[in-house]
C-alpha cells in the first residue's frame, strides 16, 4: 500500500501528517509510526499525526504517536501543524477561521490567523495531583513548589496537566541543565505513573521565560507547545510570571496567555510544511 504523507514542523518540533479522514482508525500502527519517526531508517520526526474524521460537532479528530510508539493525549505544536495541514488539504474550517478538533484531551480549537500563525484554544489546565497524574502531595490538591528527590538531588517542582502530564522545574540557568541525564530521571520517576514531560524554566522577566524540554516518549526536542502552556501556568501559580508571556524555546518563541476571563490557555505560534512524500 502506498501512503502519502506531509512533513510539518512547529518551531522545529517535527511531525509526519497523514490524511486519514476516510476511516476512523489510524492507517498505521504505533510500531509502524515509531519506524517512520526514525531519523536514520525512516522519514524522521518527533511524532506521527493522523487526521481522522470528526465527530458530530468537530471537524476532525487528531491522534498522535510519539517517536517511541507511545500515544500522548495531546500535542500543542502538533495541533498547529494539523490546522495548517487541513488548510493545505483545502478543508474549510466549520466555524469561520477555526477548526474544532477532538483529541484524547478533549476539544481543541486552532484558529488560522491573518499573519499565518495559529492561535489555539487549549482549554483549561488541570492542576490536581490525581489529574496530572502524580503521587506527589495530596491527590485532591495542587502540586506547587513541591519537593522531589530525583537522581539523588532535591528539586522543587510544579505539576500541570494540559491533557498530558508536565513537571516544571524553575532553574537559575537553563543552559546548565544536563538534560540528557536528568530528563530521563524525571520521565521515569515513580512519582509519575504515566511518565511525564519535564520543562526546565529560567525566568528572564515577568513576561519572558526561557525553556528547555525533555519530552515523554520523544526526548529532548526543539519545542513543546503543551509544555510552554504548562510553564506559564506554573509561573502564574508561583507568582514568577504574568498570565501573558513569551516562552523562548530552542526552536523559537511561543506566545502564551492564561486568560483571566475564561481560565483557558491560548497558545500562538507558527507551523510550516517542509515537504511531502509517500511510503
Ligand atoms: C510536547 C509536545 N510536542 C507538544 O508540542 O505539546 C507534545 C508531544 C507529546 C508528548 N511527548 C507527550 O505528552 O507524551
Write the layout of secondary structure elements.
Blueprint: E1 4-10, E2 13-19, H1 30-37, E3 47-53, E4 60-66, H2 76-88, E5 101-103, E6 106-112, E7 118-121, E8 146-150, E9 153-161, E10 165-170, H3 179-187, E11 197-205, E12 208-215, E13 219-221, H4 225-237, E14 244-249, E15 252-258, E16 265-269, E17 272-278
Parallel strand pairs: 2-3, 4-5, 10-11, 12-14
Antiparallel strand pairs: 1-2, 1-17, 3-4, 5-6, 6-7, 7-16, 8-9, 9-10, 11-12, 12-13, 14-15, 15-16
This protein binds (2R,6S)-2,6-diamino-2-methylheptanedioic acid (ZDR).
Derived structural class: alpha+beta
What CATH architecture of the largest domain would you give? Roll
What proportion of the residues is helical, as a percent range? 10-25%
What's the domain count? Answer: 2
* N/C terminus separation: 8 Å
Q: Please identify which CATH superfamily of the largest domain we are dealing with.
A: Diaminopimelate Epimerase, Chain A, domain 1
Give the CATH topology of the largest domain.
Diaminopimelate Epimerase, Chain A, domain 1
Report Rg: 18 Å
What is bound: which ligands?
A: (2R,6S)-2,6-diamino-2-methylheptanedioic acid
Order of helices and strands: EEHEEHEEEEEEHEEEHEEEE
Major β-sheet annotation: 17 strands, mixed
**Strand coverage percent:** 35-45%
Q: Please tally the β strands and state the result.
A: 17
Flag low-confidence runs.
none
Shape: globular
Number of helices: 4
Regarding quaternary structure, what we see is single chain
Q: Under the CATH scheme, which class of the largest domain?
A: Alpha Beta
Overall pLDDT, averaged? Answer: 97
Amino acid at each position: 500500500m502506498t501512503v502519502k504523507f506531509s512533513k510539518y514542523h512547529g518551531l522545529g518540533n517535527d511531525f509526519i501528517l497523514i490524511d486519514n479522514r476516510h476511516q476512523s482508525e489510524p492507517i498505521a500502527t504505533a510500531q509502524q509510526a515509531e519506524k517512520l519517526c526514525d531519523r536514520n531508517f525512516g522519514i524522521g520526526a518527533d511524532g506521527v499525526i493522523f487526521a481522522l474524521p470528526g465527530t458530530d460537532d468537530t471537524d476532525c479528530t487528531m491522534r498522535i504517536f510519539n517517536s517511541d510508539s507511545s500515544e500522548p493525549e495531546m500535542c500543542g505544536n502538533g495541533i498547529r501543524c494539523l490546522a495548517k495541514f487541513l488548510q493545505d488539504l483545502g478543508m474549510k474550517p466549520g466555524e469561520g477561521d477555526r477548526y474544532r478538533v477532538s483529541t484524547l484531551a478533549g476539544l481543541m480549537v486552532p484558529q488560522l490567523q491573518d499573519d499565518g500563525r495559529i492561535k489555539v484554544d487549549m482549554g483549561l489546565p488541570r492542576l490536581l495531583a490525581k489529574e496530572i497524574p502524580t503521587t506527589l502531595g495530596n491527590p485532591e490538591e495542587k502540586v506547587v513548589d513541591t519537593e522531589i528527590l530525583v537522581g539523588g538531588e532535591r528539586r522543587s517542582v510544579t505539576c500541570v496537566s494540559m491533557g498530558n502530564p508536565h513537571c516544571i522545574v524553575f532553574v537559575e540557568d537553563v543552559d546548565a541543565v544536563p538534560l540528557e541525564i536528568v530528563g530521563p530521571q524525571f520521565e521515569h520517576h515513580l512519582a509519575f505513573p504515566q511518565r511525564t514531560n519535564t520543562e526546565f524554566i529560567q525566568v528572564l522577566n515577568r513576561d519572558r521565560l526561557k525553556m528547555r524540554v525533555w519530552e515523554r516518549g520523544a526526548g529532548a526536542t526543539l519545542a513543546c507547545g503543551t509544555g510552554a502552556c504548562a510553564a506559564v501556568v506554573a509561573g502564574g501559580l508561583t507568582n514568577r510570571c504574568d498570565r501573558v508571556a513569551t516562552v523562548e524555546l530552542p526552536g523559537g518563541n511561543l506566545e502564551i496567555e492564561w486568560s483571566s476571563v475564561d481560565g483557558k490557555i491560548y497558545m500562538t505560534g507558527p507551523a510550516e510544511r517542509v515537504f511531502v512524500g509517500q511510503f
